[in-house]
Amino acid sequence: DYANQVDIMVGGSPCQSFSSNGKRGGFQDTRGTLFHDYARIIAEVRPKCFIFENVRGMLVHDNGHTWKVIKNTFKELEYDIYLNKDKNGKESPLLNACDYGIPQQRERIFLVGIRNDIPLTEEFTFPAPEKLTRTNRDFLDDTVPAKYYLGQKGFEFVTSSPTRAQVGRTIQKCQKANQQFNWNGDFIFEPLDPQKHTPEILNRAYVGIWNGQRGVIRQYTPRECLRLMGFPDTFVMPHTDTIMWRQSGNSIVVDVLMKIVQQLIQTGIFDD
Questions:
Q1: Is residue 83 helix, strand or coil?
Q2: Which of 15, 49, 98, 225 is catalytic?
């Protein structure tokens, strides 16, 4: 129904092991996996271009065989494949959100495919990294409801479990799907402030010592998490906090995506 009517397709798929016995390491080797259907949709719809995004673990999954099959499959579908390269010209497909304006250490694979029958007015190149000028503090609300503040058990856990929780970072670690509702990920320390911390907050929050300062610790709100994924405040949150935290952690960083799209526009593939 959508053949030759789609300009751009964006998405990813779970990484699963493919057949190691396939002769070509291409489309036929992906049968039985969700990636097969991702590739099938591209083959049927024939978008002008696509952006494939995934976690960095895909590069080493199944000793690198999965990544090899994925690249071969896209080429087999008659698309020119573009991957970011380092200064020495070596394949470097990971892009980090903190290199594109968002203070979050979120490395993701980005692979761009352009249908090989479309003439380009300019060769596609990945966006160059930019100097980060903002910290996560620039994305926070001045006032936050009391429900986001941690009690004693939460305060003590997130300040003593560095492998699961981090407090007071200026660049957030990679957001996870189970981040805020499971005491997992980044948290915010606020020095005690009688003007900011109302009786309602102090009735809930535990006042403790962190890095020699007396104060309280809170979660990021769902809105703050979305901002740190590049979503504007006009983006509607129709679900509960738990679902919005999960959806935020599962999302793509908007700023990175849009910078890639801007580079695609420069190639002229959308001009007609």
A1: strand
A2: 15
